Each structure stands twice: as structure tokens, then as C-alpha cells.
Amino acid sequence: MNTERFPVLMRRLYELVGEFEAMFPGRPFTPDGHLVGSIGECIAAHYYGLTLCPPSTKGHDALCGDGRRVQIKATQGTGINTKQDALHGWLLVIKIERTGGFREVFNGPGRVLLPLLEKKKPINKNGEYNVTLRQLELLQIAVPTGDRLTRIVP
Prior knowledge:
By secondary structure, the chain is of the alpha+beta class. Helix content is about 30%, strand content about 25%. It has one domain (about 5-140): PvuII Endonuclease, Chain A. The protein has a five-stranded mixed beta sheet with strand order 1-2-3-5-6. The chain is globular, with a radius of gyration of 16 Å. The two termini are about 20 Å apart.
């Protein structure tokens, strides 16, 4: 799969969003839902060399070359929702910026989040917990560099 054009297309998508918002002041055109999730998974595949699993694969979204399972979470907001059972492999959380770029927020073993979730209550009947990006940034500090997925595209 050739993904060289991916960063260019991402910038174009967010340029279009900006044009729509300028054309209709006060009306947000924020990509969300499945679109943001798919964009996040494609960012991870492109920049980290991951192999994406079929959509709706239980518990993970991608595989590393060494077989590690990776759960990918993307947001444009201030947090993510996750289930405990999605944290048994590696977790990659990214914030998609309005420029079409992204910022890595958390990259490491998902189990690092488990003590935090034990102190929280699920936010819905599906057993999802909300974790803020700030909480993830603080947890990231304790993850050794060797336990992080390697970014292969700068």
C-alpha cells in the first residue's frame, strides 16, 4: 500500500473544513465519529508501520511487525473513551490537529492505564471509561522509551 500522499490528503481535508467554517460562521464542520477513528488508524499505519486489522476486530486495531496487538485511539477533543479489555496489548493515543497533523499523547502498554481506571466508574453501560489527555500525558512519563512503538516516518 502506497501511503506517501496520506499527509497531503490530511492537510487538504482540514483545509476544506476551514473553508466550510469560514463560509458558514459559527457552524462547526469537525470530522468526528468513525471518520476520526479511521483517520487515527491510518495515521498509525502510515507513521508507525502498523498493519491494520479488519474493522471491528475485537480488542485491537492493528499489529506491529513483531505481532504485538495495538489499540489505536484518536481524538480532536480533550480525552478518549476506552474499555479495560482493550488495554491488554499496546495503546497508541493521538490527538489530530486542525492542521491535519497529529500529536502523540500516549504510546505504551495499555496496562499502564489499569490502576487509573480502577479509581473511576464507567461512563456508560458498555463499560467505557473516560480518560483525559492530561491523564494520559502524565502516565506517558513513566513509560520507558523501549516500551513505545517506534515511529518510522518523521
